[in-house]
Structure formats: C-alpha cells, structure tokens
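User: quick one - fold this with 6-O-phosphono-beta-D-fructofuranose bound?
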Amino acid sequence: MNTGGGDAPGLNAVIRAVVLSALNEGWEVVGIRRGYDGLLNGGDGLVTLDRGSVQGIASLGGTILGTTNRGNPLRWRRTLPDGTTEEVDRSGEILAAFEEHEIDALVAIGGDGSLHIAAELSQLGLPVVGVPKTIDNDLAATQVTFGFHTAVQTASDAIDKLHSTAESHERVIAVELMGRHTGWIALFAGISGSADVILVPEIPFDIRSVARQVQEKFLRGPRYGIVVVAEGATPAGGEASLLEEGGPGKAARYGGIAERVAEELGEATGIETRSLVLGHLQRGGQPTAYDRLLALRFGAAAVDLVSRGDFGCMVALDPPEVLAVPLAEAIATLKKVPVEGDVVRTARRLGIGFGD
Ligand code: F6P
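Assistant: Sure. Structure tokens for the protein plus 6-O-phosphono-beta-D-fructofuranose:
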C-alpha cells in the first residue's frame, strides 16, 4: 500500500482500514514510504504494518507512510552530472521489487496523478486497486473524495473569521482557496461562509462585474465584502495565475489570483482591499467524522476487491454504496462544478455573485 500526491485528511483512516481488513483475511501488509520512492532503493522504504502501527491513527491528518507528488516512476527525473535532467522509466524496477518482496497486490491511495500512475502500472501487469483521495474533489468517478469535507470545513471556519475584521475596517478581503482546475472547495466554503462573491474556474469572471457586486453590497450594507477566489479562477479571456508551469509528471502550481483580484478590485472601487492565501492549512488537521468514515469505507472496500482478485479498479462512492469502477474510467474525466447545478443556483438565490 502507498499514498501518493498531495496529502488529504483521511489518508491514515484508509491505511487503518486496509491493514485491519487485510489482517482479518490472514494476510501480511507492507506500506511503501513516499509514494513509490520506497521501492526504488532496494526496498529500503518498505515497512511492515500491524495492528499496533495503525492504533489510533484514524483521527490523524497527514499520512504515516509519507507521500510525494514528484515521484512518478514512469517518468522519473534524474539529474545528470552536467546539472541537466532527463526522464527515465523505472517501472521495471517497481515490478521487480514486487516480485522480490513477494507482494501480491498494491492498494494505491492517490488523486488524479497517482491514479494515472496506478492505471499505467496495472496495464503493465501489476495487480492494483486504487483508492481516490483529494481535497479538490475533482474525480468524476466518485461522488466525493475524502479530505474534501475537512478542507471545506477549514476554509469555511477561516472565512467566518474574516467577516469580523473586514467589517471592523470596512474593507474587502479576497481569500484564495485550493482546488486546482476546479472550484469545489471555493464554492462550498464560500456559500457556507456567506461570501459576497465566489470566483471559480468554471465561471470566468470580469473584474468590473466583481466590482459592481461589491459596490452594491456596500450600498446595501453592511459595508464590507468577502470575495472567495478559487486558486484556478480565471478572468474571461485571460490566463490562470500560475506559480510554476506543469509538465510531464509534474502538476502546475497555482497561486496569486486573490492578490491580483484584490489589487484590481481596489483600483476599480476605491475601497480598501486585502488578500490572503489559505494554502496548506486546507490539507492539514484532523479529518472530519464524515471524511474518516468515507476513508474507512474506501479502505475496507479496497481489501474486498483484492480478495476477489478484482484488479485494475478503483473504489468509488455511489451512494448509498461504495462500488468498484475500472481505473481507466476513473481517470478519464475531471469533475467540474456544474455551472447550472443546484449549488450554484442556491448561491445566486442568496445574492452571491460569480463575477459573470
Ligand atoms: O491537489 C491538492 C492540492 O492541495 C491542490 O488544491 C493544490 O493546488 C496543490 O495540491 C498544492 O500542491 P503542493 O502541496 O505541491 O503545493
């Protein structure tokens, strides 16, 4: 079992459920440290997991196995003596390590990127079962991923705190939330936190429209504003705000859009405007009970798939059940916020603007 990509609250609960369910089957369980890295140096990152190792971890954030979002064994970046880098395919070493350590199956817990790796390894013959994780909630094959609920709670709590300071100073505060190409966290936390405007990648915004919505709020009162900005939000006809371009085996890094929105909004309205980035706080801390339960269900279901020999699949929530979907299908589509859906409609009925 390994955990890959950015961490998400609930990872440890999956690990606990996999270990306990597998031990109940009479199997041995090993964890691979830092994604696949733990297999690439002669297996020095393999750790036996027993009941004691998973005692009391369901409520802990992070992952006891460690993780990385830079360790794709199929496109491994190696630095050459002249300082340049090249990509090498180390999948053969992964398959050999599984043979050498007599590992019969892999439970790969990860998001979009990690599940792509799992799907490729599965095609190469590795018996893999995937478990979806991401705070971004952007995997189409499952109704929801664990970690999302906790991230929304953290973001919504933070927005609650911004109200009093924004109101005291009669300011606008733009807060940037995670989510990569999708606006799920911003939308859910923005509505729950009573934002005035929510900017998401799925609805390109016009800063003049954001300014109008904020000015109307100031006229109506109370005289302050909260603008929730998904990190991937994009102005109509413009570009997303990236800190680092993506590339093969490397996801793009978003950042800076809230600062840009705050600057332009301040100029357009003359109202004092501040910005902040909530950042990795959204990935930390205890998983909510909802995320814990979902993660435990996913872990137990993954072991069920392994015991049935149902490989090349990912567990997914299809209420009321946890089902299996083929990995290839699971990674095929990104789940975007439905712009005509009931959640966006609810926000509009509450008077929340989207800058469109
Ligand atoms: O995919 C989860 C996520 O937290 C995104 O919301 C965010 O864009 C990204 O990971 C940040 O990654 P890193 O931890 O590499 O900065």
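One thing worth noting: The domain at 151-283 is CATH 3.40.50.460 (Rossmann fold).
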